[in-house]
Amino acid sequence: MTEMLPPQRHTLILERLRRDGQVRVTTLATELAVSEMTVRRDLGILADRGDLAKTHGGATLPGGTTSSEPGFAHNLRVAAEEKEQIAQVAAERVRPGMSIALNAGTTTHTLARRLALIPDLTVITNSPRIAAVFDEGGTGQTVILTGGIRTPSDALVGPFAVQTLRALRVDVCFLGVHGVSPEGGLTTPNLLEAETNRAFIESAASVVVVADHHKWGVTGLCQIAELDAADVFLSDAGLEDAARDRLAESIDSVIRAGDPTDPARTPETPQTTTPNPKENR
């Protein structure tokens, strides 16, 4: 039997991890027909990339338990290249004069750096970090920052945030999430953040979920919404075909940024605020 190349082993390890939620060094060594030292080296590489979290004798998904909530700095390092690819494609959907909403998160923060270059936007966010990006941009955006209680991921959540969002209507909401799965839908570890993110969805004529492929198969403690709450699901080329096909059963448009084989992108988001079809969902 020919020994697998490292990229092949890494793919198999991540498949096992998404399927089972955790992996053991001894089990992987047997399945891959390599030494335990080789497996530990592979796990170290994947951990450095942010694909998994090493544990004693194995590894788990980077999010840990369903209620664990990593901080902003940690999340910003995870899948940084994929987030840049997603942000590039997402920014192409935005034109001067639009009203947009960005919930707190590292993918939306990456997107904000690109949107800060587009003039005459009205931006609603519950992230002080994202608001600061636009304040530094200097291209004439109007920024509305919700109030609320700050979470470990630097989101402002709770009744004040929800009340603000329910008073507004925007052209498009770019929504970052903690996890995406067929069973759980769009999820987060934080109860108040789930409620606030639902208000983001209800405020928008169009919802674009921005989530790198590592989010697939992850389920947080609290559901934000079912998959069909999204009009567009924007991920990266690492999203497997099976995951894309499953998402396409519930979401009109599934896009993999950086994938040269992906079908042509959908038409641009409308540039003026339209009646909100999600109010009766």
Give an overview of the whole structure.
- It is a single chain.
- The protein is an alpha/beta fold.
- It contains ten helices and 15 strands.
- It has helices spanning 6-20, 25-32, 36-48, 72-77, 80-91, 106-115, 128-137, 159-166, 191-203, 241-248; strands at 22-24, 53-55, 58-60, 99-102, 122-125, 142-145, 149-150, 156-157, 170-176, 179-181, 185-188, 204-210, 222-225, 232-236, 253-257.
Structural class determined from secondary elements: alpha/beta
Radius of gyration: 19 Å
Average residue pLDDT: 86
Please estimate the helix content.
Answer: 25-40%
First-residue to last-residue Cα separation:
54 Å
Strand and helix order:
HEHHEEHHEHEHEEEHEEEHEEEHE
The gross shape turns out to be elongated
Instruction: Give the helix tally.
Output: 10
Q: How many β-strands, per DSSP?
A: 15
Beta-strand percent range? 15-25%
| Major sheet description | 7 strands, parallel
